[in-house]
TrEMBL record:
SUPFAM superfamilies xref list: Arp2/3 complex subunits (SSF69645)
GO molecular function, one term: structural constituent of cytoskeleton
Its biological purpose: Functions as actin-binding component of the Arp2/3 complex which is involved in regulation of actin polymerization and together with an activating nucleation-promoting factor (NPF) mediates the formation of branched actin networks.
Keyword Nucleotide-binding: no
Official protein name in the record: Arp2/3 complex 34 kDa subunit
Subcellular location: Cytoplasm, Cytoskeleton
Keywords of this entry: Actin-binding, Cytoplasm, Cytoskeleton
GO biological-process terms attached to the record: actin filament polymerization; Arp2/3 complex-mediated actin nucleation
Similarity section: Belongs to the ARPC2 family.
Database matches in PANTHER family: ACTIN-RELATED PROTEIN 2_3 COMPLEX SUBUNIT 2, ARP2/3 COMPLEX 34 KDA SUBUNIT
GO cellular component: Arp2/3 protein complex
């Protein structure tokens, strides 16, 4: 793996920090602040953290998934209630699919596990699909219909009994197996893999399909959680580094442009700072001037003299 590669976490860091701050203040008896945060994950999943009915003693965490109805076919409601229990709101917040409510007056002293689960809310929603088909594979059930999750407008995830496949519009993907224990990864451009030949999968030069062939050693209960973590974060991981590569290219081109301008005697940053300077008569300005002086060895050096003048005098000098 490249040293520049950054591994993303399946936990939402903002949720972790926000809840940690609220829980610690509540247990310490500190003054509770009102909460009203709207934020999104890298893949566009929307969250809202607030005080229901303006009650500062309660924290509501809501999530919106555009593909929630498709997840309902695979038992997402049962999976969430199993994972979060009494913290699941009977009725979710309007315009959101799932809401969790935490009463700050009843927070346990050891709340790390509570926050850990809350930060994995999106991951646990997707887990309902993967766990269902992992169970099919473990039992050897054949002939099950594949799951089709329209993750985004131009991205679709297919989960079948043998492999998990995701489709997305991509420009270029190069992969290499770095570990013999990792699942086989197959990339096809323009045409869907054989598992999707008889489906309505899109066919186009700009469509790429990434297939993960998961073996029993990847889906057994001992390694199942780690596999779900990696599959749930794959899309964000891929897009993150594609966008990061574009930023690096832009910075590289901009650096070359600056070097070219400096070689021909232009100083774009210095000129921009000079032209964009805001002068105020009420402020003073420090200027520097240099005089030539002789040291004890007879060599010359530049001696700096600093004076303070007003902005009006500075403009008159210009």
């Amino acid at each position: 793996m490249s040293k520049a590669t950054i591994m993303l976490d399946s936990n939402n860091k903002f949720i972790t920090e926000a809840l940690s701050n609220q829980f610690s203040n509540a247990l310490a008896g500190n003054r509770l602040e009102s909460v009203n945060f709207h934020f999104k994950d890298f893949d566009g999943v929307a969250y809202h953290m607030s005080n229901p009915n303006d009650d500062k003693n309660k924290i509501m965490l809501s999530i919106y998934l555009s593909y929630y109805e498709e997840l309902q076919e695979h038992g997402i409601n049962e999976r969430i209630r199993q994972e979060y229990g009494i913290y699941v709101a009977e009725k979710p917040e309007p315009q959101y699919n799932i809401s969790l409510i935490y009463d700050l007056t009843e927070i346990p002293q050891k709340y790390d596990d509570l926050i850990f689960k809350a930060a994995r809310l999106k991951r646990n929603c997707l887990a309902s699909v993967f766990e269902k088909y992992f169970e099919f594979q473990e039992r050897g059930d054949a002939g099950q219909n594949r799951a089709v999750i329209h993750y985004r407008e131009d991205e679709t995830m297919y989960a079948g009994r043998i492999s998990e496949c995701s489709a997305s519009i991509k420009q270029e993907i190069h992969g290499k197996r770095a570990s013999q224990t990792a699942p086989q990864v197959i990339f096809s451009l323009g045409e869907p893999p054989l598992e999707l030949k008889n489906s309505n999968a899109r066919i186009s030069e700009g469509i790429g399909y990434v297939t993960f062939v998961l073996l029993p050693k990847h889906t057994c209960k001992a390694s199942r959680d780690n596999t779900i973590d990696l599959l749930s974060i794959f899309r964000s991981y891929l897009h993150y580094h594609i966008k990061g590569t574009k930023v690096i290219k832009v910075c590289y081109c901009f650096t070359n442009l600056l070097l070219l301008l400096l070689r021909i005697g232009l100083h774009p940053i210095e000129n921009a700072l000079q032209n964009g300077r805001i002068l105020k008569n009420t402020e003073s300005r420090k200027t520097e001037s240099y005089t030539r002086a002789e040291d004890y060895n007879g060599s010359y050096f530049r001696k700096r003299r600093i004076t303070w003048i007003s902005n009006s005098e500075y403009r008159n000098r210009g």
